Amino acid sequence: MTNKSALWSEGNTPFSFKFHLPMKVIVPVLATVVALLLGVALIACTDSSVSEAIEAFWDGMVGSEYNIGASINRSISLGLVGLGFIFANRANLTNVGGEGQIAIGGMLATAMALHGAGNLPFGLAFILPMLAGTLGGALWGGLAGALKSWRGINEVISTLLLTFIALPLVYWSVESVHLLRKPMTQVSALPESMIIPDATKLPMLFPSNPMSPLHIGLILAVIAVIAVGIVLSRTPFGLKLRAVGLNQMASRRAGMRSGFLVVLAMAIAGGFGGLAGAIMIQGQQYYLTSDFSSGYGFDGLVVGLLSRGSAWGVVVGALLFGFLRSGSIAMEIMAHVPAAVVLISQGLIVIAIAGSAIFMDRKAS
Question: What DSSP state is assigned to residue 183?
Fold first, then answer.
């Protein structure tokens, strides 16, 4: 059999190509449509108007230039956590601590912005808080990597437990007047920090357009996607991470410092989470609250899972979840859809997308 005929006989015929390519699009789209219909059915079971809910959902996602920009800003944080997940996953590590890394990053960025960075020149005022947040997240992720490398503690357990330490730390920082809590007044007694100085806020991408909330975090995220894609697929470091992920013992015998690579992979993953937290504070919220991360770390984890190790897959997933989150918030506020129903609808969409991916994998195999 010639090479050409062998190639065709293994299912790579022009006919099969035409068949499989549409299926990869049609199946996830159909699954998502079914999930959306189930979500609509759930909304119909409440006291909320279905038509108002759909209108609010659409308006929250793409109803205005501001809403589109806000959705993209949300996607930035989700994408950074997703990039961290696939980075660690290349070394066969599962980083589920994105929520804690965001919390540490946001807390340290706020502390740096409020105490010292505000008067720095040459753009250092907003750069240093971001670096502080990134380093904080890297420390939090690297700690889990060190526990894995030196004590054999499963990184799923350690990153999860570190999250349950990070969140109370943030709560403590905004509760204590000796840390980040703003002075209490008669009109303001909520546990939150002061608003960070203007110089520490991320510059807007389009400062002359007041309707555009897009900030330079978008540029950082694009650079991060390209860098992660290149490092993981085209550098010796990416190859070493893959070797460590496949077999640590064999990689050690080949002369690789597998323990150090494990710590480094987790530190980089945590650094992306910390950067996401800093961007959330400096680009959107401008002050720290105990619940400022509000599930971005867990949504970013799902983005990383659905991307299947691809940096471009992270982009698609992050945009999907960013726009969904914007639509869900608007649906909850404007159409008074219960928060639980909103969360269930989001979960159905996630299950639909993940289920369609599994279905296509099994069909291909």
Answer: P
